[in-house]
Amino acid sequence: MHSALEPPEIALEILSHLHIPRSGSNRIIREARISLLALALTSKHFTNFALITLWWRMMDLTPLFKMLSNFIVSRPLTGRRFGTIQGPFLSNDLERFASYANRIRIYEPKCHSCGLDCTPYG
């Protein structure tokens, strides 16, 4: 990594331009998340900063539960998605799960079928 990128302030400035918008189309939010993922994979220096931003606000906890090796997402005949945990956890599953869960600061669930705010205070 270039020495100009070493100060944390530089990384934070770069990340400030790669935020995940609070509102907007699913396409815009998805593109922002993909950009942050690409940044996380570019350099170990950016990984932690990008992961903090990626996991700060979640509208769906499925990605978190996918950290568990025995979590399965399915769509029954109703077409609605749901997940189940089948079988025992592997030794590092819970550690990885907790590592990512601890990054989440805001959980804003959205109804998948209608897009309405489903929070009790919404």
Largest sheet: 2 strands, parallel
Please bin the fraction of helical residues.
40-55%
The chain-level mean pLDDT equals 81
Q: How many structural domains in the coordinates?
A: 2
The rough form would be described as: globular
Tally of DSSP helical segments: 5
* Strand composition percent: 5-15%
> Which stretches are poorly predicted, pLDDT < 50 over at least 5 residues?
none
How far apart are the termini?
44 Å
Elements, N to C (H/E): HHHEHEEHE
Alpha-beta content class = mainly alpha
* Annotation, overall tally of beta strands: 4
Protein name: F-box domain-containing protein
Organism: Crepidotus variabilis
Q: Care to describe what's here?
A:
- By secondary structure, the protein is mainly alpha-helical.
- The protein folds into two domains: 1-57, no CATH class; 59-122, no CATH class.
- The chain is built from five helices and four strands; from the N terminus they run αααβαββαβ.
- The strands form two sheets. The chain has a two-stranded parallel ribbon. The chain has a two-stranded antiparallel sheet with strand order 2-3.
- β2 (71-74) and β3 (82-85) form a beta hairpin.
- The longest helix has 17 residues, at 26-42.
- 5% of the residues are buried.
- The model has no long low-confidence stretch (mean pLDDT 81).
